[in-house]
Amino acid sequence: MLLIHCPYCEEERPELEFRHAGEAHIARPENIAEISDEAFQRYFFIRANPKGVTFERWRHIHGCGRFFNAARDTVSDRFLMTYKAGEPKPDLGEAGGNQ
Amino acid sequence: MTQPFRLPTAGRLDAAGTVSFIFDGKPHTGLAGDTLASALLANGVHLVGRSFKYHRPRGILSAGAEEPNALVGIHRDPARKTPNVRATVQELYDGLAAVSQNRWPSLAFDVGALNDLGAPFFSAGFYYKTFMWPRAAWERLYEPVIRRAAGLGTAPDQPDPDRYSNRFAHCDVLVVGGGAAGLAAALAASEAGARVILADEQAEPGGSLRFEAGAVIDGMPGWEWAQRTAAQLAARDNVRLLTRTTGFGYYAQNMLGLVERLTDHLAAPHPEAPRERLWQVRAKRVVLATGAIERHMVFPDNDRPGIMLASAARTYLNHFGVAVGRRVAVYTADDSAYAAAIDLKKKGVEIAALVDLRPAPQGAHVEEARGLGIEVLAGHAVTGTEGRLRVRRIDVAPVNGGAPRQIEVDALVTSSGWTPAVHLFSQSRGKLAFNEATQRFLPGQYVQDAVSVGAGNGTTGLGEAVAEALQAGEKAAKEAGVSKARAKVPNLEAGSTERWSSGMAGAAPGAEAGKKAMAFVDFQNDVTAKDIRQAVQEGMRSIEHVKRFTTTGMATDQGKTSNLHALTIASEMLGKPIPEVGLTTFRPPYTPVTFGALVGHGRGALFEPTRRTPIHTWAEAHGAVFEDVGQWKRAWYFPSGGEDMHAAVARECRTVRQSAGIFDASTLGKIEVVGPDAARFMELMYTNPWQKLAVGRCRYGIMLREDGFIYDDGVVGRLAEDRFHVTTTTGGAPRVLHHMEDYLQTEFPDLKVWLTSTSEQWATIAVQGPKSRDIVAPLVEDIDLSDEAMPHMSVREGRVCGVPARLFRISFTGERGFEINVPADYGLSVWEAVWAEGGKHGACAYGTETMHVLRAEKGFIIVGQDTDGTVTPDDAGLGWAIGRKKKDFVGIRGLKRPDLTAPGRRQLVGLKTSDPKTVLEEGAQIVADPNQPVPMKMIGFVTSSYWSENCGRSIALALVENGSHRMGERLHVPMPDGAVEVEVVPTVFFDEKGERTNG
Amino acid sequence: MAETARRMSALEGRAYEGSGIALTPTAPASRLSLRAPEASLSALSKALGLTLPRKPKTTAADGGRAALWLGPDEWLIIDEKGADLAALCAKVSALHSAVDISHRNTAVLVAGARAEDVLGAGCPQDLSPARFPVGAASRTVFGKAEIVLWRTGEEAFRIECWRSFSDYVFSLLEKAAREA
Q1: SS3 per residue for chain C
Q2: pTM above 0.80, yes or no
Q3: ipTM of predicted assembly, 2 dp
């Protein structure tokens, strides 16, 4: 069981309180009704699923209830950082190396 | 004479504590504090099992958790039969009954031993090669026979009556292993103020001090120090000492799994006491003090009962007071086994010979052995053994050639050195490093916040190990953020006359390449040195392949005594150094863990929450049959006067439409949407328009996923400009709220609106039928129930039975209907009042089955039954619920996808069977032509199907390709006893004009 | 006119007392799920008569009324005397959402020297006084149920859970309590 730092609760909490919520930084297009089939496909269906550093959403569903973002290494399963929803994608520099 | 091998002058057990037990039906006695193994040995019983493949007689190899051979069944009662229990771990209790395994008809005479005669046949990969063809025979013939002939114990065939427990625990420093090093680490860490958990797998901590007669710590014998220290630690507030507790798994972020055995050593456990407890420990720092495991010598016929590890013989002697034989030989390639000869000799056991493979062993231990009159045969090897059910003779020959000599013995103890127990370190993903000088794998690079100490870290001297552990314990406390100003970290003087050396791994003389000898590497899987070589010859290059081909290192002991031997032999064959051949992966669990321990409390009533409505007890008292809907128990139907389900549902359906019915709808999900932007948010979440919905009015809403498919539905009432009472399906409540929160928090965070689950705030009582208003009216205060004041699809707040209520005028039956929402604790009382009023009008209570039938008669869908995640509102005939002028809502773009707008999609239709008495099966497939060849083209399936009492016939809903254009068409539903003809009809079967909601 | 409805708690008649542990369902209380942005907090605090805590995992309690921080814009308000909390908030014009959940939740008091240990049977959080001091509160899980856990004393906790989960929560607590 992982420990996950909740940026709203400002501490690490057990994974049992959280729910994974897919890839992060995929904004719903503002004019979604008008976008092309290809744009909709990219928005809704296509995910990166990288080996290495991934940016993903979590929700502290059995805690403060907030969605937030995390940078996690899918190889080591380590969280590199977590940050509040709406904050820009961080530049991880070295840590986020081989993307 | 009982316990003839118990020595009155040796051991730590109390001779007065006699305990009776039974092995294979024969009564024996032992002493309190014995293990089953020590008690058997005290009675001269070495033969305890048959081997896995060849059914060779086997004895007790070790005195601990690494035991590969001595697996027995412990039978407490018919439901408590535990297979594959290591006799070396099982503590003796009065009345213990154990049986040997893998033999028939008896342990001494076993038919399966014929396999041994055919041994040249059963070499590595035998099963893979032999039973390949014909393929079908594998399942029918080969596998069942092989499974019966081979294998370990028999699984119990009754439900496990024992209790199991779970604890989450947190600490600064977790110390795994309570030997000298572990105790010292725990002492130092706790002295520094850290919260410490110390786990040790034995009943009493002490580790190898159990047998190391020469150990002295803090001026006292090692074992005495260990017991004092353990008591001292247990008394500290900041220490939790867990004995009989194995650290079996090392997981991410310093979480370890420990299993504590609480009752397996007791004759009569308290009925409420859990048998085992799983500890999930999160530690800031972990100290691994897991010790080392002695290896046996690999030489011809090294597996006879009576041949065991030297340290085991010392444990039985020095702790349990049991001599493993009367005339014992020692075969070793390292120094530590000398102490076995010396200890045994000092207690009066004859040492037939001390055979040392090394040409010129030197040191005080050699001198001491010789001084005691022990014949030390340096540069010699044991090249063979005799004795069918127990070793009785060994062949000893000089390594450099020379005449072999036969020596009569009744036990042979061996040692080829010690393997550090790096299992947990390796599980933590730490990288092992091969130490060339000592030829062993040691903890190398750490990945988690852990440190290894003592023998598990390759630190073999007692003084060094204790010093290292003290330092590590203090450091771990500091690193965990604990800093006690006046910590008194003890400075322990520790020393030992014990001698350790690196020993050897791999085959000894007589078992070299080219020899046909049965020289066992892995006792549990019957893998010999020859098998490993054969695997390499047949092309296995990786040790992982060698393992799978030969099964070496598998099963319950996971090769604790054998892995390094196997690796060494493979590396010799491959001509590659050991580190290049690599180790197999260490995976949890370190020793077997019961399913019970992993399940913990989560069984029976606690498997998952069972949710009941406030009205549940009433339904129960009125004979309801319940169905499970998610975690909820819902009243399914209310049989009365011996009715079956069909009769009860038919009566309930009739009664609702004739007078009225009362239904517990409390499980409906409810979400309160509050804030100035509530309507804007609703516009985005549902397909419908909401801005213009008047306060006090309701609307049926449809929620889509972004892909355009129906996700949920429900009636929504507007309580105020800025407040909506949203209902969801029973099963959908949590995911709908999650879905709404997701959009609110991450896509529309600027909206001023909040969501609160009120599913359980309100008990919901539906009153449906022509008499519903008459039933509700007397209970309602301050709400005008007239059609003018409160039309269909409206909501009012007021009081019902004197308590605050939200009253909805809605209908899921097509009848005039109300849904009374009252605060949940009042639900039962209000229900009873409604029931009393209903009685005056001939109303009935109805369950979910009737609810389903009545809504199907009206063509109302159930999301998840009539939809399957690929159904659009248009497919379901609900296109009217899409706000066509809306610029945005979740799913708006998905609905425009080419496939979703294409003609010919599956659409929801009604079906009428040509024979009105035939009720279709839900899920049945639909075809156009029943006479076409199979596989037929399926054009849809039945989603809902019932007997409709009110229609006097069967009715069904179905998703059918291009269904809305097939009205009147005849289709067919193929069933095992012939195709059923159906007609495609509209989805509304009853009151097509919808007049009854105001009737 | 109909008789006034009787109130029936979900844990009617349940209680357990053993060595070092007592499990006691609480009397009915009024509860409010309060949601509000930072700007509204002073007005709401004034209306409720206690300062809404702004720090995660903290509470404010006074005279039988308490506010538990559950999230950055979410508080659970509990009034053991049954005050109409929604009415108090209704007078506040500042932006907020107040939803009555008095009957949605029910509560169990877990008290005694073994309280931490018994909660450890299902709660994965570190409940040691250093990490979960008196006055700390948090939404979390207990076994397979979601709860709100509030430490009201050195050896006393209050568990709030949804009504229909209370049987499960109480049964699991009791099972763990009976182990000793």
Answers
A1: CCCCCCCCCCCCCCCEEECCEEEEECCCCEEEEEECCHHHHHHHHHHHCCCCCCCCCCEEEECCEEEEEEECCEEEEEECCCCCHHHHHHCCCCCCEEEECCCCEEEEEEECCCHHHHHCCCCCCCCCCCCCCCCCEEEEEECCEEEEEEEEECCEEEEEEEHHHHHHHHHHHHHHHCCC
A2: yes
A3: 0.98
